Amino acid sequence: MKKLLLVGGFWLACAATTFAQDGSNYWARLNKNHPEATIETILNSKPATAAVGAEVEATAGYRLNMIYDGQFRAVSAPNVKLMEALGMKHREIKGYRYELLFKYNGQEFWLPVQTDLVEQLQLELRKDEPVLLYTTVLQAQNAGAAHKALLVEDFRVNN
After folding, report:
1. CA 24, CA 60: separation in Å to the nearest integer?
2. For this UniProt entry, which residues form the secretion signal (predicted)?
3. Which residue of 42, 43, 90, 94 is surrounded by the most CB atoms within 10 Å?
4. What confidence score (pLDDT) does residue 6 get?
5. Which CA distances in Å does 68 have to 9, 99, 128?
């Protein structure tokens, strides 16, 4: 009987701890690791200094306010090649099967979105609705030309 009470108490404590967490720490961590930026700032920034011979690097994440368009397509070949060049494993690349169309100041941007977020975005957002995107920037420096991709890791609906 004592063992049953101990086990029951343990499970009750675990359940209480789980339900007490409202996810605010998750968003606080994301906000800390993803400073707010504009798409112009990211596109106009120079790649960070990398080791000699390094052509591709991942940089810090950013938060971007954009407009959701609702259109999607298969991830583009240049973005897949950039992910491969960065050293992402095949299963990680498969996590980005689609690009979704977002707008900012009249410009259109096709961004690779984690596959498990695509349906959530489609359910939670309507066309032309603002959204806060949490992204990671991938960039390549090849013969003076830079290629960048913003991988969408998470999002919040802007109200």
Report:
1. 21
2. 1-20
3. 42
4. 43
5. 46, 12, 5
